[in-house]
Backbone:
């Protein structure tokens, strides 16, 4: 169940971050409201996930999945592109998350 909480936290953080750009420096009320609600919800869900998932593992998964998703959605929605070093760096982050989840005993605690 705690991995479900982490998944929800990640989804909320992704939506919040996408709306953060749309909030335009908190000058647009609707996207700003979505940002606040999503971030509060994301941290609440993350706190529930941390009941059994080690903090370092949860944060590695949170940030890795978030970075990848925001990069993809940034390209698709906002037409933001990444150069080769950025793509390689994101690839290393994703590889790290996969290594943690596939082989680390700490992830199974």
Residues:
């Amino acid at each position: 169940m705690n991995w479900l909480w982490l998944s929800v936290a990640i989804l909320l953080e992704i939506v919040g971050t996408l709306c953060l750009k749309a909030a335009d420096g908190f000058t647009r009320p609707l996207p700003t409201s979505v940002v606040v609600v999503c971030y509060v919800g994301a941290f609440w869900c993350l706190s529930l996930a941390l009941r059994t998932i080690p903090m370092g593992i949860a944060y590695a998964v949170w940030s890795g999945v978030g970075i990848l998703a925001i990069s993809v959605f940034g390209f698709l929605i906002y037409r933001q592109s990444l150069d080769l070093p950025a793509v390689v760096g994101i690839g290393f982050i994703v590889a790290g998350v996969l290594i943690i989840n596939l082989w680390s005993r700490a992830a199974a605690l």
The chain has a mean pLDDT of 91. The radius of gyration is 15 Å. Helices lie at 2-22, 29-49, 55-78, 84-103.
